[in-house]
């Protein structure tokens, strides 16, 4: 089977790590047809738009999209995110944001006495509504009574489908689900979310479910990661928890993510959790592992589970050996040296 995959390398280190991820995929699954789109902040400065207005139509026919990261100093973040990332997630019905968080072998966690067996969490983030809404506005601008309103949107369909998806993932894994709430502070949206968790739970008697306030859950990720398996959260809660969870493993350079449309009638989009890292852009030292693991999630989604597993095993082997590591992992290797080490290890295991 030949796949047609679109890449949007984007800005900063997104460009470098995407090149490595493409090379790793080529090493395990020859013949993928790649098409690169140069949509980015640079493109915005040149054309006034992050992507052309028919961007989603141009991508619709691809089997999947591999996105680097968008955002760069000089272009406000709300322009880069709302001009590309968020519209694509919504145009393609990618209502699941799937974020596996694992302590990989050979990497040093902020939780130093923990091992890979203690920390293996899957974060299922709602990816289409919730707190990230365009409803609201600035009123009485410049006056003493100036105020802003930022509304949240929680729909029955939106809540139910993501919660059901999370229960299904829990069923594939350790049958434990934790729902992030904040019903003591957000007195309309979160009790509603909780009630839908209860409703859906009735269909999954084999899955143990509990609700935790998001602040307590943040502490739980640090103090007792071993008690957690699948976490489901709204758009904002899932976003914050996944950066936290990535940080307590070996850092942002290791954390992958998938924007998934479970209906599969449009392409899903895979990306690292991290952004474009302007502070290290252009130095050739970004860790490509997060983007390489995002590419492995993409292959898994496409049904290429052997190729995905080969990439995963190659990442673990190279990290465990500890000879070729980027500076964020305490080494001196470049982005492409680490990428090449993983690609050749993965190719060996396929060959
Ligand atoms: P960031 O994730 O780009 O960087 C945070 C810190 O982690 C920096 O110190 C960076 O050097 C380090 N880091 C991140 N990825 C790394 C890697 N692969 N290897 C080694 N170190 C790494 O987050 P920040 O600085 O808040 O955002 C920078 C830009 O990226 C902003 O414009 C933001 O809007 C954008 N962004 C885009 C995302 C996307 O396209 N999905 C996601 C997050 C941020
Ligand atoms: Mg984030």
From TrEMBL:
Its cofactor is Mn(2+); Mg(2+). The keyword Oxidoreductase applies. SUPFAM superfamilies: Isocitrate/Isopropylmalate dehydrogenase-like. It catalyses: (R)-malate + NAD(+) = pyruvate + CO2 + NADH. The keyword Acyltransferase does not apply. GO terms for molecular function: D-malate dehydrogenase (decarboxylating) (NAD+) activity; magnesium ion binding; NAD binding. SMART domains: Iso_dh (SM01329). Keywords: Manganese, Metal-binding, NAD, Oxidoreductase. Coiled coil: none annotated. This is D-malate dehydrogenase (decarboxylating). It comes from Nocardia otitidiscaviarum.
